[in-house]
Every structure is written in C-alpha cells, then in structure tokens.
Amino acid sequence: MPEAPLTLPVLIRTIRSARTQAEERELVQRESAKIRGAFRGDEPDTRASNLAKLLYIHILGYPAHFGQMESLKLMASHRFHEKRIGYLGAALLLDEKQDTHLLLTNSIKNDLLHPTAWVQGLALSTLGSLGSVAMFRDLAGEVEQLARVGQPSVRRKAVVCAVHVVRKVPDLIDVFTRLGEHLLTEQNTGILHGAVMLISEMCERSPQALDRFCKFVPQLVGLLRNLVVAGYSPEHSISGISNPFLQVQILRLLRILGKDNEDASDAMNDSLAQVATNTETTRNVGNAILYETVLTIMGVRSTSGLRVLAINILGRFLLNKDRNIRYVALTSLQKLLQEENSAVQRHRATVLECLADPDPTVKRRALQLSLALVSGSNVRTTTKELLVFLETCAPELKSDCASGIFLAAEKFAPSKRWHIDTILQVLTMAGSYVRDDAVPNLIHLIGGAKELHGYAVQQLYKALTQDISQQPLVQVATWCIGEYGNLLLDGSCEEVEPTQVDPEEMVSMLERVLQSHLSLPGTRAYALTALMKLGTRLQGSDINRIRSLVSIYCSCHDVELQQRAVEYNALFRKYDHLRASVLEKMPLVDKTGYAEEGSEKEQNGREAAVAPQILEVAPVPSDVQQQDSGQVSDLLDLLGGPADPPLAQPTTPAVESFLDFLGDLKAPASAIARMIVYEQDGLLVEFSMDRPPLEPTLLLITATVSNRTPHDVAGFCLQVAVPKSFQVELLAPSGSTVPGQGGPPITQLIRVLNPKKLPLRMRLRLAYTLPSGALVQQIKEINSFPEAAWK
C-alpha cells in the first residue's frame, strides 16, 4: 500500500525534527517525488496543498522549478484560496528570465478586471513585483483605472503598482501624470502616501513632469503644515507624531521640486522651519523627520538662516546616545562641509569628542570629519587632539590619521618648527603607518629650514636613542646625522639646550641601526651614507671603524646595499682625495613645480604626493617589492606582443661611474595631460604622467584613486600589464581602502620603460569590495595614451 502524502503542518514538523542534514535531504527528496507524481497525475483537488508544500521546500533551498506551471493553473482557478496559493507560487518561482513568465499577462489582466477586490489586490501585488517591461506596457491602462476608482484598499495597491511601472518603464509617465494630480486631493492617507511616492518617481525621471508638478508646491506645503500641527490620531500617529511616513515622503518630494527652483524654495521655507522647530527629538521617529528636513533644506535654495538651523540639528544629533544617529550626523556634516564650512566649524569640539566613541565606524567617520575641519585658525588645537587620538587609536586607523595630520601640517603649519615637531611626533607614535612620501617630504622641510638644523638633529638623535623600531623616523634621523652631525659634535643649537654627542657614541648608534634586525634595506642604506658623511668630519680610529663597517656590506645579499658599500669602499681605497668633496652637505633641492602642484591640489580638492628629489631615496621594502612583482608577473602575457628579451629592472639611476648615488638629482619632469582610465561604482582612477628629460625612455605614471560615494571601498588592488617590448614596475600604493566622498584619495606610482619608443598599450586589472560586500574584478585595456607619453 503506497504511503499517504503528508499534509503541510506534518511536513514542517517532520523536517524540523530531522537530526541530520542527510535525513532532511532524504525526506525532502521523497516528498518532492510524491508532489511531482501528483502534478503528473493532474489531481486538481490536491494541487493547492501540494504546491504549498513545494513552496515550503523551495524556501528551504531545494529545487522546486517543476511547480511553475501548477502555479499558473492555480492562478486561473475560480476558488480564491487556490488562486492565492497560485499567485504566491508565481511570486516565488517565476522571474523575467523564465519563459513561463510570459504566460502571466493574460491571467493577471483577467484578475484586474475581476469584480472582487481580493482578487484585484492579488493581481496588483504580483504585477508590481514580477512585471516585465512588456507586461507593464500591456496593463498600464488597467492599473491607472483601478487607481482612480474602486475600494480604497485596491486603489492603494494600484498606486503602489504604478510606482513600480514608472520605475521600470519611464516612457509610461504620461499615463500617470493626471492620476498624480488627481490623487493629491485624496483624503485617504494611504492613497495620498502612494500618490506622493508616484509623483516623486515621475519628477525624478522626467523634466516635463517636474515642471508640471512645481505648481503644486503650495498644496504640498499645506499638507505638511497640517500634519505638523495635527493632534493625536490613533490610526496614523507613531510616538505622538502624526503620520511620520507621509511627512517623510512629502519632504522628499519638496526636495526634488525645490532643487534649482527659487520660487518653489521660497514657498516651502516657512514650513521647513516649522517642521525643524516643532518636531520632537525624544524618539527615533522625530529624528527621522528632522533628518529628512535637513536634507530638504540643504537640497533646495533655502535662506542662510535656515541652513544654519539645519547644521545645528545635525550638531544635536552628535550628542544623541544612538550611535546610528551619530554616524548619520557625521556623514551628513562631512558632505555639507564645503558649502557651509563656518556653520560646521562651530561643532568642531563635538566632532572631536566623537573620536572617543567605542564604535569603530563612528570613530572612523569622526576622524575623517575632524581632518577635514582643520584650518589655519584651528590647526594647533585640532592637531593636538588628533595626536592624542593617534597615540591610542586602533592600528587600522593609524594610517589614515597619520596621513591626515601630514597633509594638514603641510597646508596650514603656522611655523616650520611647529611643522617639524608635529611630523616628528607622528613618526614617533605611528612611524610604521605613514605614507611613502613622508620621509622625503620631512627631509626637504628640514633641509629648507637652515636656522632649525641644530634643533632638528638634536631632537631626532634623542628620538633615535629611545626607539629604532619606527623605520621612517630612523631614516630621517640617520639622514640628518649624516648631513648635520657636526652640529651634534659641536653641541650648537639655539632653540633648546644643546647636547654635545661624543663621536664614538654617534658611530655606535649608526652601527646599532645597521645591525638591528628591525632595519629595512632602505634604512641601512641611509645609515651607510650617514657613516660616510660623518667620516669627513671625524679622524683617527673613528675613520678606521667606519671603513670596517662599510666593508662588511661589500658582500651583502641585498644588491643595493652591496653596490653602495662597494662604491663607498672604492672612495676610501682609490679616491680618498675626492671623498670630502663628494660627500659634502647636500644643497637645498627645490621642489620643481611645487607651487603649480599646490594650486592644482586646491583646485581638485585633493592632496597629491610631492616627493622631493634628494640624495637618499628609500627603496620600497623588499617584501612589498616581491609581492608587487609577483602580481605584475601574472599579467605579463595578457597583452602579447613581440617576443623581445626583457630589459633589466631599473633599481638605481643610470649613471655609469661609482658616483651614481648622486644620480637622483635629476632635472624636473615634463607634465603630460591627465587622463581618466576607469570610472565605475563611484570610483575614479586617473593617470597623471611625467617623462624625466634625462631619461626619455622612462614614463612615470601616478595613479590617483578617488571615491565619489559616501561609503568607503575596501580591498582596492591595481595590477598592470604591458607588452613584452616594455618593462613595468608597480610600486606600493598609499593604501588599500579608498575613503568615501571628501576623504583623501590613494595614490600609486607606475614606472614604464619604453626603450623602443613604441605606442604604449596597457591592461589594468582592478579589484575592490563594494560597501555591500560584493567583490568586483574588472579588466580595462588602454590604447589611447597621448603621443607625448611615448614618442
């Protein structure tokens, strides 16, 4: 005797009682087979119950596609409970990709014309969620007719369905324009709410509809005023606020109608002020209305007093205990900073207090806004607070904080000494998290402040004796010791009480840096050069000690250090008479084009990395070089091209003599027009290109990645491939997270060697993670480089 089929309640209990996944899978397969057999036998009495069980199985994630046709059959049934199950099955099992979807139109049309309101409601709900373009074009007239006349429940669903029609097929806006005008006089709040949504969608998608509905601004303002002053209504009030959902929708529509419209904005100013001052903020409902009011005030051409009121509302949000409200306020203030800087500056103290928030997302937003609020008038106090935050913040925030302080100090420093002290504090607290250009920028700053040489070398030497783990700090300190070590030996300093350092102690400190396992190859290169420069100011046993230290690295595994040591050793053995003149103090190297680049920063609202060309150029850490080289090698054969032998990777300036460590003193590069290479998902990737005149085959490309969305984009990775006749080197980026709108962009340097001066072709592979969590990978081929980049 065959086993009887299970009812839906029994099936649910049985599946829930399954102890293992295998037992559940066996039960589902057995029941699915019974359902499939019943469908084949065309048993109309059990079709609805079998489809209900199949839908439950589908919700659990098991295949249920064989129930599509049964859903269509039940939709055509004359029994309401069967029709309801059929519509539910269609909503769950069908979409526009299914061929069966085309059969829905006739059934839905028949039910739209059905005399029963329940059946019409089923058809409207399904049409709104499943309707295709063709289906909407066929049934738009019926939807418009049901929205005009009929029972309120059907009209409300018809208006919501019309909203979906307008979103999917903007060409049908003309069908619903008169309907929107008619529904604005509706007394039923549900239908009125849908009408405001419908008008908003039409105005966003059609300039003609926008012009047409601008004349209804006084009517909308009257509706909003009535809602604000209305008393308590048990049907529509939430937390003592009358119909907050309708208020929010009206505010959104007013924002659309008042954008770039002076007359409409003037008509709504008084009502917006009334909403902003009379809405209670003790509950989240009131905060939602106030937030929409702020967006509307800032989105239309409102008066200056009203805009200040909106900023003050956001300032009150910062004091709210709800972290979500504080996050929304910080994000909104950052967007409004450019337009209302003075009003936002009044809340700077409250923003800085948010840096102590335990929520990491609120803390990150507060940091971004605090950095954006730095100006010439508050740079000292704000930077002091940021330095306190930098000392205790999480590691993932140290990089952004350090970079922001660097940019603020460079732009608003009141004096060179304050600038140097600030950068030294950052290097001491977060040296491992600073940008790649921090070291050369600080060296150039110290070199240009002749009156502060003694003070800088004293402070750096003191910091070096306390900690040698912060590599950028060690690099700057060793460079200064090499250049201005005589000031330490003489103990000359006018800024602070001078400390005279013994020559042997100074050499021991540099030896400690060379032998430390924490030192990177670039740091050891700085230390070797510092020893050589000190050798011109010392005598006797100290010279022999320096010579022995240098000779140790003549057999170093690191090629850069080995070459440097061999050349320095040659200075001792063969060219000792030239050693003093070769190792003289570095002259101040001017940042060519610095002023022009600074003006471009202000115009673009971004800070570009300007690396001074000086004697010591710290190489990229070896682990980063290996990682980037491995990534690029995976792309080398993507473009193909002639099978020319690859050229040697340029790691040092091309100067043939043993004095090639001076080759970094190059002439300024010629600028080439900036080009946009990628623009998608709110990300903008731009290439700015330079060709050094002394190396015509070398092209330096600075990739700048900025974010136009309010949310951060994490995990950004850029890889580059070129044909085999070229050679490419991809340096480490300034970061992997692209901050949201208003934050600093990330930069990455690309070196392309083109010995044959062929037209440049390049393929990019971009990978990043959207705020929604979706991983995006794109490949972009560029063939439109200007001739100036390669010819």
UniProtKB/TrEMBL annotation:
GO terms for cellular component: AP-1 adaptor complex; synapse. Residues 670-786 form the GAE domain. Coiled coil: none annotated. It comes from the Eukaryota. Keywords: Cytoplasmic vesicle, Golgi apparatus, Membrane, Protein transport, Transport. It is a peripheral membrane protein. GO terms for biological process: intracellular protein transport; vesicle-mediated transport. Its main location: membrane. It is found in: Cytoplasmic vesicle membrane; Endomembrane system; Golgi apparatus. The keyword Metal-binding does not apply. InterPro entries: Adaptor_Complx_Large_Subunit (IPR050840), AP1_complex_gsu (IPR017107), ARM-like (IPR011989), ARM-type_fold (IPR016024), Clathrin/coatomer_adapt-like_N (IPR002553), Clathrin_a/b/g-adaptin_app_Ig (IPR008152), Clathrin_app_Ig-like_sf (IPR013041), GAE_dom (IPR008153). PROSITE patterns: GAE. The keyword Membrane applies. Belongs to the adaptor complexes large subunit family. This is AP-1 complex subunit gamma. It comes from Podarcis muralis (Wall lizard).
